[in-house]
Amino acid sequence: MSTPTRAQTQALDQLKSYRFGFHEPDASIHTSRPGLSERVVGEISHWKNESDWMRRFRLKALAIFAQKPMPTWGADLSGINFDRIRYYIKPGDKPKANWEDVPAGAKRTFDRLGIPQAEQKWLAGVGAQYDSEVVYHRTKEQLAKRGVIFTDMDTALREHPDIVKQYFGTLIPPADNKFAALNSATWSGGSFVYVPQGVEVELPLQAYFRINSKDFGQFERTLIIAEEGASVHYVEGCTAPVYTTDSLHAAVVEIFVGPRANVRYTTIQNWSKNVYNLVTKRARVHEEGRMEWIDGNLGSKVTMKYPSVYLVGRKAHGQVLSVAFAGAGQHQDAGGKAIHVAPETTSLITSKSISKDGGRTSYRGLLHVAPTAVNAKANVRCDALLLDPASRSDTYPTMRVKQKRVTLGHEASVSKIGEEQLFYLRSRGLSEAEATAMVVAGFIEPIVRTLPLEYAVELNKLIELEMEGSVG
Amino acid sequence: MFGKLEMTNLHVSIDGQPILKGVNLTVEPGELHALMGPNGSGKSTLAMTLMGHPRYKITGGEIRLNGEVINAWTPEKRAQAGMFLSFQYPSEVSGVPFAQFLRTAFHAARQPKQPVPFATFQERLTTGASAVKFGDALLERSVNEGFSGGEKKRAEVFQLRVLEPELAILDEPDSGLDIDALKTVASALQQYRNAQRGFLVVTHYQRILQYLKPDRVHVFMDGRVVRSGGPELAVQLEAQGYEPLMRERV
C-alpha cells in the first residue's frame, strides 16, 4: 500500500476534527436498493404494513415527483443523483420504548451526542431518529395523561389513523414542490405531536436526527397539531456524520395552530458538509394563534428552507427567526414566508446570515397580503455579515400586497466585519479568531437569546469552532 | 512587571504613504509623557502603530517594550504583554454586553492563562466602574453602541482599570468631554499611576495635563518629535499655538 499523499492526510485530519463526524457500522435489517421506482415505494409501504390510502398517497406523490422538473430558481442542485440514493433503511424491528433495548450501535451514537445526559436533566420526551425509523421513543407519563400524543410518525399512522388522515399532506400537498413530492412518496419516521384543547406543554419536546448510512437520503415527516388554546415548543436538532458522497435530506413539516394556540418550532441544523438539505416547513395559524419558527442552519452543502406561516384567522401572528452560516463550499439559501389572509394578522421575519471563506448565503422571502387581510402588519428584517471579501450574500425579497390598509416594514443590511473592529478587540488581548467569534456571537445574539439554554450554548460553541477553522 | 517603551528612528507607512518619519521617544516606567501636535501630524498613527495595527507598516526603526523589540508582535500579544491603547474612536460591537466583553478581555489579556480568583475580576469591575462613574445600565448595553462621546471615553478608561496594563497609550482621552467628565477621566487615570507604569497621552489641549501632571511634553510635527520639554511646554503651546514652532522649522 502506498503512503497517503499530503492532501489525503489533510482530508483525513479534517474528517477527524469534525466533532460529530463518526458513524457506526451499518446493521440495518431492510435496506432498499438504490434508486426510486414504484417497486421501491411499494416495498417501503409493505415493510411498514401501511394502510391502503397511504400506499396510494405515496404512489401518487411519486408520479408528481417524476413530472416536476428540478427547481432552478435557487441554489445549485445539479449535484444530486436520485439514482444513487437508498430510500429506505430500517434498523431493528419496532420503535423501542426502553433505553435498554436500543441497539448498541445506535446507543453509542446517542451517547456521543450526549442525549441520555441531556434527557436526565430536563427533557420532557425524546424521539430520536436513527436512520429512517425511530428506534427510541418515550413520552412522559404526565403528558400522555393530559392527552398529549408525542410519537413517531409511523406509530401515529397506525394508532391514530383518523387524526393523521385528517391533516397529513393537507398543508403541504405532494404537488407543492418536487422535494415535497419526493418526501411524500418515500417518507419514513419523523415526529407526530398532538396537543388537545387548552393543554400547555411546559417543557420543550425534543427529537434528535441523524443520517447514518452512506448515500442514504432521509425523508422524515413531522406533523404537529395544537388545538384551541394549546401550547407547545418542539425542538429538533440535527447532526450528521461525514461521508464522501452526497446525501439528501428532504423533510416535510406541517403544523396546525388552532385558535389562541401557541406553537414554537426550533431547529439547529448541522448536517455534514456534503448534505443537500431541502426542507418544506409550513404552519397554518387560526384566530389569535401564534406560531414561531426558529431556524438555525450551520451545516450542509446546500440548504433551501423557508419556513412559512399562513395566517388564516383574525389576529393570527407568525414569526420566523432564521440564522444561517455558510463556510467554504456551502450555500445557505434560507428565509421565511408570511401569507396574510385574515384581518389584523401580524408577522415578523428576522434573518441573520454569516458568510466566511467564500461561503454564500441568500435571503429569500415572501410577503403576501391577500385582499381580505385588512389592517395586517408585517415586518421583515434581514442582516448579512460577510467575514471576508471572497464570501457572498444576496437578498431576494418578494412582496405581493393586494390590500392598501396594511403596515409594512422591510429593512435589510449587509455589513463586513471591520478591520478596525477586529483590531479594537485584538488590542484587548483577543486572538483574531476569538475577536471574529465575538462579533459573530453579537450579530446573532437576537436569535440565540430565544433558544433553550442548551441550544444557545451549542450554537455559540459551533460558531466558535467554525471561526477556528477546526470544523469540516 | 513594569512598562518601558522606546521608539528608535521609527518609520511607518500606510498604504505606501510614509506618515512617521523617524520617531525617537522613550517612556520610562513611572513616567507620563504627553504628545501634542497639529491635526494630521501623525499622532494617532503612532498610537495605532505602537499597538500593532496590521495596516500600519513599519518601514524602519524599532519599538521596544521593556527592552524587547516588538515590531512583529500581533496586537493581542502586545496586550498580553501589558500594553493598552485607549482609542480616539472606539469600535462598536453589537449584541455583546459591555460587562461580558470586559470579562472576556480580562481573561484574554493574561498569558499564560492562569486561574484568576473570581473575586479579582469582580473587584476591578466595581473599582473601575466607580472610578469612571459607570452605572450598571451601561454595563448591560452593547459595547460602545449608542454610547455618547463622553461615555465612550469613560468606557475606554474603565477597560484600562479592569485590564491593569503596565504601559498605556491614550489617544485623545479628553476630546469631546465636558469639564466634569474630563475631571472624572483624568482622576481615574491619575489614581492608576504608580512607579512601574508608563503612559503616553496624545492630546490637543493643555487642560487634561493640569490634572495629569506630565513628566515630559513632546511636540509632534510631520511624523516626528520636533521638541521636548517639561510641563511648561504645554502651557506655552496653549498660549501661542504651533505656529511659532512651524515657522522655526521652515
Keywords:
heterodimer, A: 472 residues, alpha/beta, 2 domains, 11-stranded mixed β-sheet, 10-stranded mixed β-sheet, 23 strands, 26% helix, globular, B: 250 residues, Rossmann fold, 4-stranded antiparallel β-sheet, 28% strand
CATH topology of chain B: Rossmann fold
**How big a fraction of the residues of chain B is strand?**
25-35%
Strand order in space, largest sheet of chain B = 6-9-10-3-11-12
Seen as an oligomer or otherwise, the chain set is heterodimer
How many strands, what sense, and barrel or not for the largest sheet of chain B?
Answer: 6 strands, mixed
Reconstruct the topology from this structure.
The complex is a heterodimer of chains A (472) and B (250).
Chain A: H1 6-17, E1 30-31, H2 38-47, H3 52-67, E2 89-90, H4 104-113, H5 115-122, E3 125-130, E4 133-139, H6 141-145, E5 149-152, H7 153-159, H8 161-167, H9 178-186, E6 191-195, E7 205-210, E8 221-226, E9 231-239, E10 247-249, E11 252-257, E12 262-270, E13 275-285, E14 290-297, E15 302-305, E16 308-311, E17 317-326, E18 331-340, E19 346-355, E20 360-369, E21 376-386, E22 392-401, E23 406-416, H10 419-426, H11 432-448, H12 453-468
Parallel strand pairs in A: 3-7, 6-8, 7-9, 8-11, 9-12, 10-13, 11-13, 12-14, 13-15, 13-16, 14-17, 15-18, 16-18, 17-19, 18-20, 19-21, 20-22, 21-23
Antiparallel strand pairs in A: 1-2, 3-4, 5-6
Chain B: E1 5-14, E2 17-27, E3 32-36, H1 43-51, E4 56-65, E5 68-69, H2 75-80, E6 83-86, E7 93-97, H3 98-108, H4 118-131, H5 136-140, E8 142-143, H6 149-163, E9 167-171, H7 179-192, E10 198-202, H8 207-212, E11 216-221, E12 224-229, H9 232-240, H10 243-249
Parallel strand pairs in B: 3-10, 3-11, 6-9, 9-10
Antiparallel strand pairs in B: 1-2, 1-4, 4-5, 7-8, 11-12
